[in-house]
Each structure stands twice: as C-alpha cells, then as structure tokens.
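Problem statement: downstream parser choked on a complex file, so we are re-checking the raw output for the adenosine-5'-triphosphate run. The parser issue turned out to be on our end (a line-ending mismatch), but while we're here, posting the original submission so the record is complete.
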Amino acid sequence: MLKLDEIQMRLLREVADLHTVPEGAYNIRSNSESAGRQSTANIEITPKTDVSGLEVRIKPGTKNESVHIPVVMTKSGLKELVYNDFFIGENADVVIVAGCGIDNCGNQDSEHDGIHRFYVGKNAKVKYVEKHYGSGTGTGKRILNPGTEVYQEEGSSVEMEMVQIKGVDDTSRTTTAELGAGAKLVVRERLMTHGSQKALSTYVVKLNGADSSADIVSRSVARDDSFQTFDAKIVGNAACHGHTECDSIIMDRGRILAVPGLEANDVDAALVHEAAIGKIAGDQIIKLMTLGLTEAEAEEQIINGFLQ
Amino acid sequence: MLELKHLSFEVPGEEEAKEIIRDVSLVVPDDKLVVVTGPNGGGKSTLAKLIAGIEKPTAGQIFLGGEDITEKSVTERAKLGIGFAFQQPVRFKGIRVIDLLRIAAGKKLSVSDACGYLSAVGMCARDYIKREVNASLSGGELKRIEIATVLARNPLVSVFDEPEAGIDLWSFQNLIEVFEKLRESISGSSILIISHQERILNIADEIVVLKNGTIDKQGPRDEILPSLIGTSAAVEECRRLMPAAKGAENHA
Ligand SMILES: Nc1ncnc2c1ncn2[C@@H]1O[C@H](COP(=O)(O)OP(=O)(O)OP(=O)(O)O)[C@@H](O)[C@H]1O
Ligand SMILES: [Mg+2]
C-alpha cells in the first residue's frame, strides 16, 4: 500500500486526479523514492539503473490501458533530475498521465527536472496528460523544468495536454518532436502565472514525413508581475501541415513574449502561426456584470473559461 | 416600473460636447411593453446602456420601482432586477452556453432548466448547451442565446436591444411569443424593446420614437403606430431602416 501523508495525497489529486491507487500500471514517486509501483501484463515499468528514472514498455497492440507516473515533493530543498523513457509498441492505444506537485513550506528551493522521451511505434495512439502544481507558504521556490522528446513513427498519433495553473515559480519547458509519414501531433497547453513567476515554453517540431501534421495551441494568462515566453518553432521538411497558436490574456503588470518560428523546407509544407495577446475585453466584463457578477467575479469566470 | 427623468448624456467632442441623449423623460410602467424605435444613430442603444448602468448620464435620474438607481453600478442594477440583451452580443472563449445561463440564473441551473430557456428562444437545446459562446456560433444563434440569458435572470425590467436582428422569419413569431409570455409571467415586471420591426411594434403597449437623442413621439401604440407607417415619408424611412421588415412583407 501507499505510504503517503495528507499533503502528498492532495498533490496527487491536483496533478493526476488520483484519489486512490490508480488502475492499470503506475509508479508514484514521492520525495525522490518510489512510493508504489505496478506493472501489468502489457505494460512493464522498470527503474533505470544508470540514472534516476523509469523505463515504461508498452506491448504492441495494447488497447485502452493507462499508465500513471505522478511525482510529489514535499521536502524543501530537494533537487532531482529524472529520465523517463516510454516505448510504445505498434498499434497500441494508451493514456499516460504524468504530472508533478511540489509543496514547499521551507526556505530552500525545490526543483524537479523531468526528461520524458516517447518512442511511439507505427500507428500507435497516445494521449499524454501532464499537470503541474505548486503549493506551500515557504520562501523556497518551486521549480519545474520538464523536457519532452517525442519520436513518432509512421501513422502514429500523439495528443498532449499540458497544464500549469497554480503555484509553480519557475518553469522552463522544452518540447521537441520528430514526426514520420502520416504522423499527427496535437498539443494543448494551458498556463497561468502569477506573482513574480516566470514560465518559458519552447517547442521545436520537425515534420519529416509526408502528410504529417502538428497543431500546437497555447492558452495562457499572465497576472501580477509574471512573465511568459512562448517560443514555438515548426519545421516542415515534407508535404505537411503545421499550426501554432498562442492566445494570451495579460493582467496587472504581466508580460508575455510570443516568438513565432516557421521553417518550410518543402514546397508542399503549409505552416501557420497565430498569436493574440491582450487584456480581457471590456465588453466581456460588462456583459457578465449585467448578469449580476462583480468586476472581479467576471474576470475570474472569463479566465476560468479561457483556461478550460 | 422604470422611470427616466430628464436624462442627458454627452460625450466630449472635437470642439464642443456632443449630446447623444437630450433631456429624455420616460416611464415604463409595470406589466407593460414599451417599444423604442427611431432612425439609426438616434440614441436608442445609448439609452439602453444608460438604463443598464454601462454609461453614466451627465444629467437626470433613473428610478427603478421608485428607488433612485442613477449612482448604482452595472452589477448593483443587475441585482436589483435590470436585465439587458446587447444589440451586439459578446463572445467568450471557453465559456459554454450552459455556463452563461448558470451565471445569468445566479444558481446551479439543471441542464433541463437551462434547455428550457434555449427552447424558449427556438433553439434545439441539446445541440447547443455544451457549445462554447465563441466565434463558432452564428450571429442569429448568438442573438438567441443573448435573449435566453436575460430570460434566465427573471428581471423586473428587461431591455432588449434589437432582439430581432439576425433572427430568421420562421422563428420570429416564436420570439414575439417569448416577449408576450415574459410580460405575463412576471407580474410587476416591464419590458423595453428597441426595435425597427413592425411586428414588434404591433405588440407594444406604448411606442417611443427617439430621434437625434430626444423623444420625437410617445404614446399608446394605436396612436403612434399609424403615424409611423401611415405616411409615405415614414414608409420610405422605414423601408430604408428595415430590410428585415421588407423581407417579412415579401413572405407574407
Ligand atoms: N461613446 C460615444 N462617443 C461618441 N459618440 C457616441 C458614443 N456612443 C454613441 N455615440 C454616437 O451617438 C449616436 C447614437 O448612437 P446609438 O448607438 O445610441 O444609436 P442607435 O439609435 O442605437 O442606432 P442603431 O439603430 O443604428 O442601433 C451615434 O451617432 C453614435 O455614433
Ligand atoms: Mg442601436
């Protein structure tokens, strides 16, 4: 059974929607140790021997199974670097839920740097969900630096949902992907920063195979004195479709830098970038006020909806 | 009952202040439906915004049920019972139709209750309830949802700014019924509709003609309506202003 305290359970709920031990394969990492691990007939989770981290092997054809690998940290001053590799067999169809919650009540920085590599076999389908959450009243920072590398073989499809809504002070996210023929990548990123937080999100997606496609959409809100950078680059090396979108709301003294990057190396590459940054539209607030909300409540509803 | 007393609204102009509403006095009695009409740019939407508190009058007062609400905010007026459907409804990313209706109702509205409001405005609720109120909705759909949010508030005074705009002819009768029902269902409530549509003018108890920011004509429907559609000059003006009405004639 799991040996987790109240705070650790709360973090687990925030990042993985877990109220109890998950079904299917899982590994729960708590303060740099495994607090529980389970493999299934089709999904094998083994710890790495050379560095910290896991190897997750999913057999070809595995359908409707899930892997949960949440991380929780509650000790102040902990700093870890973890490598998790996922080998997803041909024609598999799985859901992978990662995520990291840090509760830092101390005065030392807590940092989790997770490098996730996905080797996605032919025609396999992966839905990947990664949530970040920070809490705790200490002066020590909560720092998360996720690195995601995706290698997609022919006809595979990967859908990633990345969410960071609260409490992470400093984050630098780097996502790279290489897509083979007919492969498809969809990324939905939702981000909210407040206080003096900083968030950097960098994407480099290479569309190498014919008819590959990528759709990367970031919705973000920067409040208080926070600062975000969205730097998305798509490289079209074949007949392909690429789309990046940064849709952001700034409030208070928040700042956002959106850096579009499109590189077409094939005449049949069709690449689009869209970016819109601005404060909440005044008529949206007024409309909700005519429905009885105060200005602050109206803002809250608009942002909640926007980040849904 | 809503009462406007000597209401004026001016905005700073290049040389001198521009008066958009000039000394307008008007009563919208309980259980009555008042329709405000008049040429484009006459000040109708501005008047509606003054009532909802979106704009502040530069002179005059507004009373709701005898209480002076001139200094009250948009939120306070909404809570006191003023409902307002915009001429140009606002779109929201991520907020679904049901969310908006729940905000409007101010309580945890069940899906079937929410569907009731959509059906009332002629929408097949099932198809829309989970849709986002974003750019994917058509103009007419958005307009109906706007009306539904006001219905969900059960206001003492409902103000609809050109509710018919963008609503197809087939649903028009349905819309008229919505207003008639609204008037009957809330006793002591009153409705103010801004409209260019003869069929809406036809269900008015009273008609107000607003022109150049002032009341040009005001009185019971039977008195005002003939003067609006009777004269050839007025017909011409109405034709120009009411492409939808022209369409209605053609179909009749
Ligand atoms: N804030 C403002 N500043 C300057 N001019 C304004 C302002 N608000 C409204 N106006 C002007 O006041 C006049 C009345 O506008 P309003 O929108 O109230 O007209 P309306 O009667 O609703 O017209 P329509 O039938 O076209 O909807 C217009 O000439 C408009 O341009
Ligand atoms: Mg108008």
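For whoever reads this later: The pocket of adenosine-5'-triphosphate (ligand 1) is lined by residues B 11, 20, 40-46, 87 (CB under 6 Å).
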